[in-house]
Design brief:
Blueprint (H helix, E strand, L loop, with lengths): L6 E3 L6 E7 L3 H6 L3 H9 L9 E5 L5 E7 L10 H6 L3 E6 L6 H7 L16 E5 L2 H22 L7 H15 L2 E6 L1 H6 L1 H7 L9 E7 L6 E6 L1 E5 L8 H4 L7 H15 L5 E11 L11 E3 L5 E3 L7 H14 L4 E6 L3 H7 L5 E4 L2 H13 L5 E2 L17 E2 L8 H10 L8 E5 L3 E2 L9 E2 L4 H12 L1
Parallel strand pairs: 1-6, 2-4, 2-5, 5-6, 9-11, 9-14, 10-11, 13-17, 14-18, 15-16
Antiparallel strand pairs: 3-4, 7-8, 8-11, 12-13, 15-18, 19-20
Helix pairs in contact: 4-5, 5-10, 6-10, 8-11, 10-15, 11-14, 13-15
Family: Belongs to the peptidase M17 family.
GO molecular function: aminopeptidase activity
Protein name: Leucyl aminopeptidase family protein
Length: 458
């Protein structure tokens, strides 16, 4: 059964009941229950704390579920644990509408089973009287699953060619136009993308993937995703512990592909330009070196101080290309810096924005859909850290201070003046499981960006 079947309109089908109990009213609710139900609640240690639940016995072989939640509307993840743990079958809510929690219900049943046999358990189906919200939840769930799947795939099975194939499927599905630049054309036109990826093995060559869609008369927007399909660190090689998760260094590209899919499926009134610089940062005799001076599409020169600061290099050329068509908005997603994780941990994408109205809209959307972002400063005073003695700039300051900020300032050098731009330095990974969010690849910032675009262009 597909995810589309996990949410169905309520037409009176047979289903077990999930009773929603407000935490503040738990004591009164419990006192009103028959003795058998109170005993079941005690045996299962349902305390009234939000998220606690119990199976309640009914007549004969009948039973229902009680779930304690915060007062007010259900949140995105309130039903996720039940979706993971309840027996297969159909359920309907009593005492509340599912609303935003539909998404958590579907994502609680996400499984990545490419490399192992499916667990074989049946689906949990939620019946709802909100058909419009069903459709919206399923679209967001599908986009989130796309990000999770792509990030979870091992690097041996997902390289630049596979990212190109993903973009091609999107283009074919929505009648977009796909352009791929590689080889000599990439070396001449996008020298930083070429340089970072030139040491990759045959079949995994670097490329710039572009997809255009929509009416040229509509406002032009650019969505960019960092597509480093594996990052060894290059000659500044990572230790094994730092390399372990580097299959996920294309998480920005996964976010960009998923967001582009949402934009096209909803037929937003935009001219979409999706750009994915796709590379593998490998070690070989022709790998780029510390101290090399790199040319760029913009004409600036960059002294390479660290081959492990490669993501900003490929994004620089992609940002330059995006700006050439004068978009009214640029969004980029990248698993860019460890400094962002040190500052904010895994859950909060470090968000840099050069335009106050865009920042306000993006952060408001993040709060509305419970997909948190945390704004970080484009602090002009740190721009001098990018000075080079021999070139226009370095890619990574030697000091190590403010690493997420200086990376964003590097990217800003390639954004056209006056163009609203947001950069999301996202982790794209869950180091520990939470309800509806298994350990592994995940979409962090996707729903916020989509809510902002939908509000702006729908």
């Amino acid at each position: 059964m597909s995810a589309r079947d996990l949410l169905q309109p309520d037409r009176g089908q047979a289903a077990r009941t999930i009773e929603i109990v407000a935490a503040t009213g738990f004591a009164a609710w419990l006192n009103a229950q028959p003795p058998r139900a109170r005993a079941a609640v005690a045996a299962q240690k349902m305390s009234g704390k939000p998220g606690s639940s119990a199976i309640l016995p009914g007549d004969s072989d009948d039973w229902s579920v009680a779930l304690a939640v915060d007062d007010g509307a259900l949140g995105v993840w309130d039903l996720a644990r039940l979706a993971e743990t309840l027996p297969e079958g159909a359920y309907r809510l009593s005492g509340a509408e599912a609303g935003a929690a539909m998404l958590g219900w579907v994502l609680g049943q996400y499984r990545f089973d490419r490399y192992r046999k499916p667990e074989g358990e049946g689906p949990r189906i939620l019946l709802s009287g909100e058909p419009a919200r069903i459709a919206d939840a399923l679209k967001i769930a599908s986009a989130t699953a796309r990000v999770r799947d792509l990030v979870n795939i091992g690097a041996s099975d997902l390289g630049p060619a596979e990212l190109e194939a993903e973009a091609r499927m999107l283009a074919d599905a929505h009648h977009g136009v796909l352009t791929v630049t590689k080889g000599d054309a990439l070396a001449k036109g996008y020298p930083m993308i070429h340089t970072v990826g030139q040491a990759a093995a045959k079949g995994r060559e670097p490329r710039l993937i572009e997809l255009e869609w929509g009416d040229p008369k509509h406002p032009r927007i650019a969505i960019i995703g960092k597509g480093v399909c594996f990052d060894s660190g290059g000659l500044d090689i990572k230790p094994s512990s730092g390399m372990r998760l580097m299959k996920k260094d294309m998480g920005g590209a996964a976010h960009a592909l998923a967001l582009a899919g949402l934009v096209m499926a909803a037929r937003l009134k935009v001219r979409l330009h999706l750009l994915i610089p796709a590379v593998e940062n490998s070690v070989a005799g022709n790998a780029f070196r510390p101290g090399d001076v790199l040319a760029t599409r913009k004409g600036l020169t960059v002294e390479n101080t660290n081959t492990d600061a490669e993501g900003r290099l490929i994004l620089g050329d992609a940002l330059t290309r995006a700006g050439e068509d004068k978009p009214e908005l640029i969004l980029d997603f990248a698993t860019l810096t460890g400094a962002a994780r040190t500052a904010l941990g895994p859950d909060l994408p470090a968000t840099f924005v050069n335009d106050e109205p865009l920042a306000e809209a993006l952060l408001a959307a993040a709060r509305e859909v419970d997909d948190p972002l945390w704004r970080m400063p484009l602090w002009d005073g740190y721009d001098e850290m990018l000075k080079s003695d021999i070139a226009d700039m370095v890619n990574a300051p030697d000091s190590g201070f403010a690493g997420a900020v200086t990376a964003a300032l590097f990217l800003r050098r390639f954004v056209p003046d006056g163009t609203p731009w947001a950069h999301l330095d996202t982790f794209a990974w869950r180091p520990a499981a939470r309800p509806g969010r298994p350990k592994g690849g995940d979409a962090l910032g996707l729903r916020a960006a989509w809510a902002m675009l939908k509000a702006r262009y729908c």
